[in-house]
Amino acid sequence: MIKSVVSHGIYIPFLRITREEYINTLGSCNADIKEKAVMDIDEDVLTMAVEAARNASTEIDISQIGVLTLASATFPYAERVMTGTIIQALGLNKNILTSQHGNSTLAGTEAFLSALGLMEETEAKYALVIISDAPAAEASSDMDHGFGAAACAFVLAKAEPGLRFEGTYAYSDEVPGLRYRLPGDKGVRDIGVRSYSAMAHDDTMQASVQELFNKMHRTPGDYQHVVLHQTSQKTAGALAKKLGFSDGQIKIGLVYDQFGDTGSCSPFIGLCHVLENAGKGAKIMICSYSPGSGSHALSFDYDNQFPDSSKKLQYFLNHKKYISYIHYLKIKKVI
Amino acid sequence: MGAHISIPMYQRAVSQKYRMLAQKCLHCGKVNFPPKAVCKYCLTGSKFEHIQLSGRGKIYSHTIIAGGGAPPEFAAEASCKGSYPVVLVELEEGPKVIAQLVNPLDREISVGMPVTAVFRKIYEEEGVIRYGFKFMPAPVS
């Protein structure tokens, strides 16, 4: 059965901190951001998830949603059903199929793929996929400099035109010591060996993307837009070139320098920007990555443009307030 | 600890707090929010239908809660922000509700300013996050 994304929604927090603020305060900034999004003290991944889902579902009949999948590596509770919070906040039916995906930045593509599968088990027309994340590290860690926050949501439909899902390829391997979080820790750690980390990043994503090409009998030139997982502007751009993509193919989906590393949301925020700019008939690929390591490459055909959204990515690019590093530390409850 | 609301009591009101589910009096047609056992307008009707509020409204009155003035459950928020605005909003459907205003604009908060509801953490107690609605300035279309 053909399944397509028929609507999307975004939420980016109002607060931003700039690279210059880090440099002025700490003397350096370890991330190649221009600025990054920061959740306010009264926000978490669930509040962001609700706002993104509301933006995605303004034009659809929510009583027809039969599947809800929710993803984040930074849920506010380590154990609890959190889809119930979303169901209440949106007023969805309480008897829908749900799944929660966490523990790694692969959670976003896991939730998306799960929704495609769960749709087979319901007569309802739509599935709602929400990905919301705000990676965290100790303020004393350089990893913190690039960690941002964002949420996006997608409504999937059976046999409707939109962003048609074409196929996927998954790859996982054992690569310990990279971006991990122990029980009870609030932030992630890393052994800090850059060459080891870069090799795992490139090899893992290369494996899923290349094998998706083989599976679908495609070449890099067949895609108009490609969105790779973005833990840095430079590494995402360099890997894209290594895979045979041009600057033009990755330009629109590369948004890291505006919002920071948005964890499991990373490829999907780029996808939202692509959807707001791509033409009908465009082939689009996204690729997620999680240290540890794993990657999912997904291929789409954009066969129908979405209804105009009032809150496009451009709205969130313009709608912001810059904060000081002191304010940032207060939000992180460091001071 | 501030004004304690038990978790079971909070749970019974989540549809009001999370998505502003109100009730329309079948006797006089007025919208009650939060819901009442007897309509607060006609003092007669006790049968209602649920309606979903739009979350849109205009500021009817406003104030600033400054450092030291915040109730204990909002002390962390007051400490982080220094102060925070609280608004009385007249909703499109008629009811007036009090809530915090988030993302205030650089210009002054004023009576009549259009606002829209957003989903936020209200406070945390006993390790349980209490979610609910606040307002933000309405996006300019």
CATH topology of the largest domain in chain A: Peroxisomal Thiolase, Chain A, domain 1
* Radius of gyration of chain A (Å): 19 Å
CATH superfamily of the largest domain in chain A: Thiolase/Chalcone synthase
Q: Give the SSE string of chain B.
A: HHEEEEHEEEE
- The number of helices of chain A is 11
Reading off the top of the CATH hierarchy, the class of the largest domain in chain A is best stated as Alpha Beta
The largest sheet of chain A, given as strand count, sense and whether it forms a barrel, is:
9 strands, mixed
Q: Could you tell me the number of beta strands of chain A?
A: 12
The span between the termini of chain A is: 53 Å
So what's the CATH class of the domain at 55-135 in chain B? Mainly Beta
Please tally the β strands of chain B and state the result: 8
Poorly predicted runs of chain B are: none
Provide the CATH topology of the domain at 55-135 in chain B: OB fold (Dihydrolipoamide Acetyltransferase, E2P)
CATH architecture of the domain at 55-135 in chain B: Beta Barrel
Largest sheet of chain B: 5 strands, antiparallel
Structural class of chain A: alpha/beta
Task: Indicate the mean pLDDT of chain A.
Answer: 96
Strands in their spatial order, largest beta sheet of chain B: 6-5-4-7-8
What is the succession of H and E elements of chain A?
A: EEHEHEHEHEEEHEHHHHEEHEH
* Order of strands in the sheet with most strands of chain A: 5-4-6-7-1-8-11-10-9
List the helices and strands and how they pair.
The complex is a heterodimer of chains A (335) and B (141).
Chain A: E1 3-11, E2 15-18, H1 19-26, E3 35-38, H2 45-56, E4 65-71, H3 83-90, E5 97-101, H4 107-118, E6 126-133, E7 150-158, E8 163-172, H5 194-216, E9 225-228, H6 233-242, H7 247-250, H8 256-259, H9 266-275, E10 282-290, E11 294-302, H10 313-318, E12 321-322, H11 325-331
Parallel strand pairs in A: 2-12, 4-5, 4-6, 9-10
Antiparallel strand pairs in A: 1-7, 1-8, 2-3, 6-7, 8-11, 10-11
Helix pairs in contact in A: 2-3
Chain B: H1 7-12, H2 14-19, E1 21-25, E2 31-32, E3 48-52, E4 56-66, H3 75-81, E5 83-91, E6 96-100, E7 114-125, E8 128-137
Antiparallel strand pairs in B: 1-2, 1-3, 4-5, 4-7, 5-6, 7-8
